[in-house]
Structure formats: C-alpha cells, structure tokens
Amino acid sequence: MTHAPAARRRHGGLTVLLLASFMGILDVLIVNVAAPSIQRDLGAGFSTIQMVISGYVLAYAVMLTTGARLGDSHGPARVFLLGVLGFTALSAGCAAAPSAAVLIVLRLGQGLAAALMLPQVLALIQVLFPREQRARPLALYGATLGLGAVLGQIIGGALIRADVLGLGWRAVFLVNVPVGLAVAACTPVLLPGQRPAGRRPLDVPGLLLTAVAMTLLIFPLIQGSAEGWPPWVWPAFSGSALTLAALWLVERRRERAGGSPLIPPSLFGGSGFRTGLAIALIFYTGNYGLFLLLAYVFQDGLHLSPLASGVGFLPLGVGFAAASLLSRHLADRYGSRVLLIGAVVMVAGYVILIATLAPHPAYSGPVTALLLAPALLVSGAGQGIVSAPLIGVVLATVRRQDAGAGSGMVLTANQLASSLGVAVLGALFVALLGADPQEAGAGLDERDFTAALMGCSWLLLALAAAVGLLARRLPHGDRPGTSAPAGTDRSARGSEQDGGN
Question: Region annotation Disordered: residue ranges (predicted)?
C-alpha cells in the first residue's frame, strides 16, 4: 500500500522539476520574440537589446558548474528552492523594469538564479528514482530542454499578440511568476530534503578561473557577432584559452591533492565522455542556430507577425514532441545508437529542406512557411530522438562519483552551443544575405532570405552528420539513467532501499 503514494510523490516531484527546467530554458528564447517591442518601448539601441538577451545566457553559463557544486555541498533541494525563488522574484522585476539598463541587471540576476536552480534537477531525479527507473525521467528531462527552446517562439509570439492587460512585452516575464510560485510551494512537500553527504569547501580559484574563461569566450561570441567581429574579440578568445589552460592546471593539482575541484580533470579521461560532450556541443549548436535562422526568415523575410512566426515553428515542435516519446523505447533497444538514428533523421530533414528551397519559391509568406513544414517536421523528429536520451547517454559514460560534474558540463555545453549557434550560423546567414536582415533599405526580398537559409542548411546538415559519426564512437552498451551525480550516492542508495521516500 505504501508503494502507490511513494510513486505518486516521485512523479509529482518530477513534474515540479520539469516545470522549473521548462521555465528556465524558455527564458533563453522567449525574449528573442519580444526584443523589437522592448527596444521600441524602452528607447534602447540594438546592442543594448542584445545584452538583454545575452546577459541571461552569459550569467547562467558562467555560474553553472558552481551552482552544481553548491548543490553537492548544501543539498540539491535547498539550493533548488533558493534558485526558484530568486528566478521568480527577478522575473517579476524584469516585467516592471523602467529602463533597459535596469532590465539588463535583472536579466543577469535571472541567469545567476537559473544557475542555482537548473543543475539541481538532474541530482534530484537521481535521488527520487531508483536506478532502474531513471531512463524515463531523464528522457522527459531531455525532451523538456528541447521543447522549451522550440515553444519559446510560439509562447512569446502569442503573449505579445494577446497584449494581456495591455502589458505588451512585459507579459513574457510575468508568465514565470505563477509557475515559479507553484514550483516553490510544492518543493518542500514533493522533493526530498536529504542532508548532503558532506560539506565541501568551495573551490574559489576554480570558480574565478571558470568565470573569467567563460566570460572571455561567450561574451565575444555574443557581442562579436552582433558588432561584425571587431578586433577586440580575438584577444578575448586568446585570454579565454590561456585561462582554461590555467584552470586545468589548478584543478588537476587540487584533485591530486585529494580536494574537490569544481571541474575534475579526471572526468575527461574517458573517451566516451569526451565524445558525448562533443555530440552535445555540436547538436545544440545546430539546434539554436536553426531557431535563429527561422526567426529571421519568418519575421524579416516572409513578414509574418510574431504570433504567425511562432506558429511557423509548430511543425518543428510537433515532430520533436512525438519523437521524444518514441526515443525512450529506441534508447531501451539500441542504447547509445539511438543518437545515430536521430542524426540520420535530422540529415533527412535538412535534405528535404534544401530540396524545398532549391527552386527559390517566391510565394506569399504563409504559403512559403507551409511549404517548409514537412522539412521542419522531420528535422524536429530527429532532434527529439537525439535530445531526449542525450544527457542520459552521456552520463552513462562517466563514473558515479563524476556524474554531477558531468551533468554540469553537459548543461554548460548547451549554453556555449547557444552562443556558437547564434554566432556562427548568424554570421553565415548575414554573409549569404549580403546585408543585415534588419537594415532599412537593404533591398532584400523573400528569395534572398530563402536562398540564405538554403545555404545555411548545408552547414546544419554537416553538423547533423557529425553527430551521427561521433555517435558511432560511443560504447554500444550505454543505457541512459545508469549513473548518479557526485555527492548524491549515499542518498540515492537510500532512496532505492526505501522506495524513493
């Protein structure tokens, strides 16, 4: 009789964790749709609005590994709740921001809160579910990350079109408040408040070096792309490389001395983890790049409204959602080879996209968006097959005591990929167009945008093929959901003994 309530509690806790994950990932892309409205309302320049968008990503990426380690030291449920409360309060602050400068500061705060909240999700999934039951929750978590990114376009466009209570763009931030409050209220009831295995001193040198390295890498990727790659970005990239080398030396010395480094160098000793991390970086780069390209094509090329542009993403989302549900069964049968299957489907989708765009159709905007739907449906299906099991497959390549750091690295790769996708594919798209897509008087028409999208689709196809080739190098026997984050081994074992309570 006790098993049913325990199962209900576990699944209620999973719902709370997935809602928080969806909220955090949604905020990465939902602001893109609102950017023109924010710019007009606050009288801000384009570079300032770029900082509103990128400030969140930058702060989140810089603090991710530290947030994961704080969860190990102070208990993931406690740090998760702190992150949720901070994220919710800062979302309300963003909605009330009187100026662009204040909004940028609040968005930086949102990113820091997300860095406390999101890394705890994987650790808490490991605590809630016995090892043999973790494949489905991990697949749902991977699917949530992808759906949050896809649906950000649709939800953002719908909120701006509805103009709820005359709030305009401010509604895209207020939507987080009721969700965040509900998650915060349920956390003490549904999520286990186990004590950490042991307090670990914070790796301050590792924290500082990581923050400097990530800032010198991600900020130039974001701003350099927006500003046409000015000369200052190259010294920044060099500084990032030097700082990463220093970080490696410091962390290796700390690990050899028996300390708890922020990023254990031994984590990269296994070829499976290195390959899995490369897959994550390449896969997410293509995904985020595709979202950017479609937003430009739909809104600036086809002149669709924000809501209609969001609807244009719907085939991508439908394919993603359906394939995510299927991916669990594929992962059970094929293990890490499921990533190869997803990559093949993605390649097929991009081939269909290129074939659709090759004649350079010059129909009305809605008709062109409809013509793109089959290609986006297939591409989304491939993304769903890869995204849902990806984190579980990567974690299956590392030791149990390294899984916490491993999950943090995968999330960091996700954020780095978002910047790479925008920078690389955005730069290629602008180069193929021959002008800034939002530049007045550039003389661009629909065919210019579809031709540029076709050119970028070849790169997307190459990235998908690279995912497939790398997936072939993963150990064949890996199954998602077989490891547990560092610092949670003791509590995870306890949850397996008592049914998850």
Answer: 477-501
